[in-house]
Write a structure and sequence with these properties.
This protein has 4 domains: about 60 residues, no CATH class; about 150 residues, no CATH class; about 210 residues, no CATH class; about 100 residues, no CATH class. About 45% of the residues lie in helices and about 5% in strands. Strand 3 and strand 4 form a beta hairpin.
Amino acid sequence: MRLDTSEGAYGKAESGATIIVPGNLKDSEAWQRIISDDKSEVMPPPKSHKKLSDEEKAIIKRWIESGAVYEKHWAFVPAKRPEISSAAPQNAIDSLVATSLNKVGLTLSPEADRATLLRRLSFDLTGLPPTPEELYAFLNDKTDGAYERQVDRLLASPRHGEQMAVAWLDLARYGDTNGYLHDHMRTGWPWRDWVIQSFQNDKPFDEFVIEQIAGDLLPNATPEQILATSFNRNHLITTEGGTIAEEYLNEYAADRVQTIGTTFLGMTMNCCRCHDHKFDPLTQDDFYSLQSYFNSTTEKHEENNKARAFEPFLEIASPLMPTGPKVQVMVMKEAETPRPTFILQRGQYDLPDQNRPVSRHVPKALGSGIGGATENRLSLARWIVSPENPLLARVTMNRLWQQFFGVGLVKSSDDFGLQGDYPTHPELLDWLAEEFRNGNGQSRPWSQRHMIRTIVCSATYRQSSNIRDEHKKNDFDNRLLSRFPRQRLTAEQIRDQALYHTGLMNEQLGGPPVFPYQPPGLWEERSNGSSNTGRYPRRKNEDLYRRSLYTFWKRTSPPALMGIFDAPDRTSCQVRRVSTNTPLQALAMLNDEQFLESAKWIAVRTIQETTSPKDRLTSMFRRLVNRSPETKELASLLQGYETFFARYQSHPEDAAEFLKQGATAAPANIDLPELAAWTVIASVLLNLDETLVKH
């Protein structure tokens, strides 16, 4: 007996009784068993130690009486644009959020103050804080549209593409090494630069998807379109001697299926790789049908090879290094003859079921595809972006919402299946999806920049993060969006913020990965003796001051500072970073060479720009916290400065030792005890909650 399908529920049991008769409680054997007093018949049976509550029984009763209608899972039904109230404070987002809030007696919170708004907006759109000059200009712009002009300025910044790329690199499991035992270096950064430029140029998202899945199969494919398919080759690769080619080629293809499923469909594909699940709409047949799109490449298994790229690869000149040597980047290339694919028993590479061959098709629960003369990766990619696929636009907009609000409208952003969460605002998610897919007459379809602007210009986004008493009762966890959610900055933003305030940041766009500060010995500890990543080659030039996006990413030993602040290791597709709060984070902020050098140079900058201690404190506070200090704060910091200045005056050798941190020495004309004291104050401000958290 099955109750999860209409066919099972409306059918007859072995006893001959009809399980559920729509609209008829008396003849529905399932209902009669639920209300039975006979312990031998009642469901659930007493020995299960489970019992339906009166409320649950009432729901089942109403459902049968109303026709016992079975509907498709909400995420598998095409989105429909809901009607929007004309009374929306800013845009459609606010109307739909306000409707949910009104049901529990809440309203949107008041707008945050301008300084908070600009700081929030700057981090969300560029990953960097506003400068004092930018903040001053915004605070003094009293004309209509001042906020919207800040949005447009930040969206036009080249830093915007870098900020947007970070989350995509997590999804694409991007790294600069192969992983596994040897973890040799690979050349993948030209694809990373392609991603940055795609976001910066607001490449239509359907093109962005198609090119990464199947750019090599497009008619007259350009080198850039072929380069895009490196997305599929970002998986781990082993070159260990004695490994079995068939096993690892199967692993690579399976990884592509799982990444495609999570990234573009919001569906977990891991379980159905091994066996069917009774309540899972994805079957083994679906998994291996998808895998058949991705296992017919010309790639080969390599052993004991330290090459930076393995066939098939593309030789390409570096973009933002055009006169330099060409580099090889792994891409996709279809074999002349598709490889036969069979369902693997229990997912084992060496147990293909010869009686269960699979053909290429999309998951059956999602439709029948779009047809065509040839079923290949390109036809799959075109189906993924087509109206026939109800998931792509929803999944992508949910992640975009998560990027700004910390949690998606569907909390389980990696699982839109039957075991995933129901959206808190289903109509809002559908509106975002349809606006994204079709545009609105004034914006073109598939424009991420239009959707970003729409979200950040909403009153919902511009709310204060202050918690009111009524929030604690009716929206404690803020799932109804009655306020803006406080969120700790990402690992990249925390480091980049400190570096940006120094004035030392090298804002070169793109190029090979760099090797900034890292505690010694980590690579040696995590490396095989024959690996070419056995020693960390820390730089001493301006590469130390590149944005964190460009830091070399060794998979078996990711950048330590990034890991402490919850960046993933990128061995697999990662949809959401979960923020933790640990003592290691505080220790890193107070003692890591990057932050100590940053504090030193923030102090240098402050000393050179102003004179009196009070003015210096005010200037430093405004730069790092993006507001003026209150009287009590100013007095406390001033007392702290005087205490440390006196200490370092009496022990100048300690000041000199303290200021050795970092590769760039401070100007010789600055008094060391004074500089050391101001460095401590800068370190204090870098560690404030207001500095580390987006409010």
